[in-house]
Structures are given as C-alpha cells and as structure tokens.
Amino acid sequence: MKIKQPVTTIFTDIGGVLLTNGWDRGSRKKAIDYFNLDAEETEERHHLTFDTYEVGKITLDEYLNRVVFYKKRSFSRQQFREFMFNRSMPLPGMLQLMTQLKKRNKIKIAVVSNEGRELAEYRIKEFKLNAFTDFFIVSSFVHFRKPDADIFKIALDTAQVHPEQVIYIEDRPMFVQVASGLGIHGLHHIDHTTTREVLRKFGLK
After folding, report:
1. CATH number of the domain enclosing 65
2. Whole-angstrom distance, CA of residue 147 vs CA of residue 96
3. Cβ count within 10 A of residue 128
4. Is residue 155 a contact partner of residue 142, using CB atoms and an 8 Å limit?
5. pLDDT tens, 127-180?
6. Fewest CB atoms less than 10 Å from the CB: which of 3, 65, 102, 157?
7. What is the pTM (predicted TM-score) of this model?
8. Is residue 141 domain-shared with residue 195, that is, in the same domain?
C-alpha cells in the first residue's frame, strides 16, 4: 500500500503569481507607444530573440540591441531599461501569503520561473523574494525554460523531495499540466483567495 506523502515544498512561478509579468505583450505595447516604436517590427524582433534571452544565452543589452537599438534612437538604453523594470508590480496578497506559508508551515519554497537574468535579479531584489524563497530555478540561470520538464526535474533534485510532496503554483494551465505529468500537485493560480483555499485543502496553514 502506497503511503500518501505530506506536502513539504511549494514551487511557484513569479510572473502572474507573485508579481505582474516581467515583459509581456501589455508592457511591450506601452513601451512601443511611449517610445514611439514601430509596433510590427518590434514585436517580430522580440519573438525572434526573447526565448534566447529567457534561456540565458544572451544578456539584456544584447536583447535590446536586437529589438530596439539596432538603429539610433532619441532615448537612451538606460531609459528603456528603467521603463522595463518599472512594469513589475506585486500582485494582491501573494507576497504576504508566501511569507505566512513559510513561517506557519516550516516548508521549503522555491521559484520555478521563465525570466531573463537581469529582470529576474531586479525582481528578486526589489520585491525581496529571497526573504521567503529557499532557492531560485530560473530559466536564465539553469538554461532550461518551461514547458521543458527538465526545469522541474532540476527543482526536484535541488529540493531533494518526491514530486508528490510538492505543490506547484502557476497561472498558465499548460505549465501546470507539465508539472502534474511528473507527479507534482499542480495548482492553477487565478487569484489570492482561490489559491489560499486550495492550499488549505492540502492541510497548509
């Protein structure tokens, strides 16, 4: 008879769960409007190169060289970087929820996220994510990105836990399904209230 394993670990995404997305379509549209960029060309260049940035093969400056600064601009690289970073905002209640989960349940919390290095480092520091996170498995750090299942396997190996001991909180259903395929408890995040209720059902305070 198989013994049910208690939940000892939470894996969580950053964008769409803890914070707003780092550099999504909405943020790019605002940048295109603010800096008066060509929308079609900017989006095409972004889609051709962003995966390479997120998997850690190029720097943010190299990404910007390809997408924005391939020709002379009336604004500086620093102005554009600051605009990108300032798109990040905390989502209601989620940072507090993670802090409470860590304190009240003595569990491990790990980030498993697709993020470019500079954006990830800014977001970790600015929003003090390392205050409750034990380790970060970020695509640009480990050179795998979701939906590649290997990024979850790295997280499991790092945490030294069985998949059934883990809840993965993620706002994108496909990534929840990939994690669930490994035996991880997938939690499709909609908002703070519903996520909190699901965690309670797993016996977490």
Report:
1. 1.10.150.240
2. 28
3. 11
4. no
5. 999 999 999 999 999 999 999 999 999 999 999 999 999 999 999 999 999 999
6. 3
7. 0.92
8. yes
